[in-house]
Amino acid sequence: MYLKTLQLRGFKSFASATTLEFEPGITCVVGPNGSGKSNVVDALAWVMGEQGVKTLRGGKMEDVIFAGTSTRGALGRAEVSLTIDNSDGALDIDYTEVTLTRTLFRNGGSEYAINGAQCRLLDIQDLLSDTGLGREMHVIVGQGQLDAVLRATPLDRRGFIEEAAGVLKHRKRKEKALRKLAGMQGNLLRLADLLSELNRQLGPLARQAKAAQRAQVLAATVRDSGMRLLADDLNTAQDQVRNHRESTKHRKELLQTSETELAAIRSTLAQREHAAALASPQSAAAGQTVASLLGQREQLRNLQTLATERLRHLGSAPVDDAIDLTQIRQQLERVKAQAETAKQQVTQARQTADESSLTKQVREQELRVAQLELTNYDKQTAAHRERIAQLTSQASAQRSRVETLTAEIDRLGVELRAAHERLELARTAATPDEPENQVLDAQLEASSQHLVELRSASKAAQAELSETQQETARAQARMAAARAKAQALELSLQHGHGDSAVLTEVDGVVGQVLGQFDAPDSLQVALESALAHLGSAVITSELTKAIEISRSEQAQDLGTATVLFPGKSAPRLEPELVTRALEALGDQQAGRLVEQVELASDLPWLAQLLEELLQDVIVVSTMQMATTLVTKEPRLTAVTMAGHVLSDGLVRLWTPLEAGPLRLRSELADAVEAQRELSAELETLELKSQAQGERVKECTAVLLDAQTEHEVLVGQTQERSREHARAAAVLENARQEVARTHTTIDQAQQRLAQAQQTLVQTADQLGAADQDFTPDQGRQDNLRQQILVLETGLEAARNAETEARVALRGLQEQFAGQTQRVSSTERTLHSQEQAVERAQQANRVRKRRAERAQSVLDQAEIALGLLEQSIQGALEARDRAQQLQQERDQEIMQLRERAEHLHQTVRANVDIVHGDELRLTVLEQQVEQYANKSIELYATDPAELVAGYGPHVPIVEPAGPQTAAAEDSDSGAEPQGDEQTVLLGYNRQEQEEIYARSKRKLATLGKINPLALEEFTALQERQEFLAAQLEDLRASRADLMSLVTDIDNRVEQAFSQAYADTAAQFTKVFARLFPGGHGQLTLDDPENPLTSGIDIEAKPAGKKVKRLSLLSGGERSLTAIAFLVAIFLARPSPFYVMDEVEAALDDVNLGRLLAVFEELRQNSQLIVISHQKRTMQISDALYGVTMAGDGISTVISQRLEPRNLEGTEPVGEVAV
Fold it and tell me: Cross-referenced InterPro entries, in alphabetical order (predicted)?
């Protein structure tokens, strides 16, 4: 695998599309400073996923986009594509060539692609991680990175090796697992809190569930008694409805009879009233005729009296009329004669007109009578026809109803037979198969028992596993505490005790004084107190070294430092002196301190030095013993077990503020021992947990199988119960269907009988109607002919009246003209001879009046005779008409009284029927209310309610006196299946008492949570589920811990191997780069390879320095190169990129580095940015990067032949 091509578009100074084709071996990129060579390195790092802006030598990521120059504007994006030859399959992808593309837009958006397919940055990092390429990018050595390697912390150096070893992905897996563990810990805490909360809620909810169960029992009792009471009410109401219907039916029949009789009487009354109405005008006319004749007679008598009186008056002496007025009188006579003639004509014409008017009135009266008679006859005919049609329609409807009911009864008979067949089939299906049921019940009971046993075993196994996991967690916590304590103690020991501990790193220092003793726990305080400040002093072998140490930088930084070295032997105390003093003291625990401790070093001079320090120190038990010893022998120094020191002229009480090195070392040993014990305990617990886990899995598997089998049996049992229930329901439905069919047939037969009876009654009424009235068409035609003749006569009378009226008006006008002429003549006579004329006129008037009065008197006498005869005839006719009218009125009165009586009877019966109907409606509404109440309160059909809870249904009660106790109990326990029962009759009072008592008890329970049972069950299931989830989380946590352990083992193994190989290669490479020098890699914590950092020790030839900061610039660069090359050789990568790494090297060191490059070229591809000619000479291809005045980088390439390394003519030159 090697880099094949690199294509840049808009990346930094490469504004135009630029393609660099690399070759296996060494490719050297050269060019002036600032031309953009390092941008090639940045492009390689950027396309492989580099996210550090500072690594790319920028301030923000968009700085990688071409920013523009004075001649070319800025671009909107940067894109780099890197093509890798994957012929050897080093990359885990099925392509021989892999092209990685990264694009950045100026608005901040970015895209990644692998072979043109969009992907994530993580995908590119995962793809490259298996080849040793990671986020540290140790294969790309940029400018200044060599010094960064030297300044790196030990852990940073460790990261280079881990990246080369390919363990970063394992680190990521571990980090992911640890994040999951951290998140899981929160889930565990939340689950524990939830379980605690659920356990707290289960208690009150259980009580609520118990109350709800008790409420359910009471509610069931209330429901049962309420349904029985409602069924009783409904049954009673239905009986009342049936009784009222029969009573109402009888009332309606009576009402119908009364209405029929009333209709007949009203018909007769109407006929009589009609006849009376026809005769009433005749009687009235007779009365009017008599009245008119009497009035005329009175008028004639008055006229006769007036005429007699006028004759008497006119019979006196006439006026003198001697004057001759013959001509005038003659003329006047002629005029008057003409006027009289006109008057007579007017009178005659008026009489003719009156006669014509009277004739017209008579014709009109006759026409009205005829028309009324015809109208009445037509009404009777129409009423008869309507009655016949109505009765015929009713008869037809009744016949159709009879036929329909007959067909319905036939159909119901067929349905009844089919219902009986279904009833037999349902009865057969409802008969249970007892042997099969017994076998299934036995299997179910055995399965339930086995399932209970398996659940108990599973819970026990889970409890044991949980307890073991808890013990493991506690042991792990103790292990972590012990490890932390050991690390803290070890850190304290590494840094020493006191400020002079830093001097232990100076050459020639053996160690601190206290670090050279191994003392038992009881003497550690005494030893530290006896040595006092000398315990933190450092030891060296000679005076010159002690002086060097005191002049070292560390000592100068301390300001004050104590260094011990062997001097001249001090005078030793006589052993007998010490022995006598101890014998005189009498303390069994007293003795020389130096004899009771052991030296950690076997150096003779060091042992002598330490023995001289403690030769006069005696350990005693108490301060009193110390006082006695020093008093008897002042040359000795006494120290107690508590650390108090007493000598001649000195008393020092010991109050240590912190533990000393001895105690720290002892505590460290105890902590290490505790770690070993806890580790063994953890291994035992893990083995036990694994075994228990396997057992839990086995129990769970067996339990699941048993649950499956049990569920199958339960399903079969439930299916059997459902089938039996369905068969019973079908049987009950079949029975109800048969009963309903019987009831329907009976009702249909009753309706058929009623319909047949109604049909017979209708036929009888039709026959009676035909007999009551027979239409006479001849009479009707005669009446119409008579009306036609009367209409013709009436028209002729009207015409005659009109003509007479016209003639009368003409004669009246002529008479008026004659009268005016007479007046004119009279005025003339009056003007000539007033006196004569008045006399003559008066005589004439008297004469005429007398004559007229006599004529009137004669005519009146004749008229009175005739009128008397007419009055007598009219009186007789009137009396006869009045007698007939009285007889008709009396009959009509009797008929009206009978009709009124029947009408009152009908009204009373109608009111009674209406009341019955209202009562029936109320009862039906009551039945409907009860039915609705049955549906609304109990969701039960009314018929089913009466059938199942009616008064005829016995009440099933448990036998014995425990019924009341069970009813009063609050346990809510269900009755046992084999409890004996008795059947009791219905007693409404008892049921009302049971209903009221249960309602009161239900009310005393207070507010009930109806969902308590479901909530309790759900909460209990949730509690069990959460408990199971908690166990699963603990198991998952254990699995993650195991995964972390496996990852740590793998990382430790991979790192250990890579570190060993890198350390070996570093020693070799350092020796090659620094002939005669020595370099090595060391772990700063060898006991913890997972966390230990890496230190670099470099000693060039002839130098004793160990600190890298003391090396020269070139040496530092070579050391960093040696470290990186060691990594390259230990874990080769497909390619390496180096940016001016040899810039600080002289020619000799450059040659050594080039030799290393030659070695790297054997297995890897090298891309080197350089200014060195010798580096160019060993390269296989050259790329020259230039930049003109426009600020845009361009590239030219040159492939070199192995035989022409000194710069032949270019084979080809391409400017891109």
Answer: P-loop_NTPase (IPR027417), RecF/RecN/SMC_N (IPR003395), SMC (IPR024704), SMC_hinge (IPR010935), SMC_hinge_sf (IPR036277), SMC_prok (IPR011890)
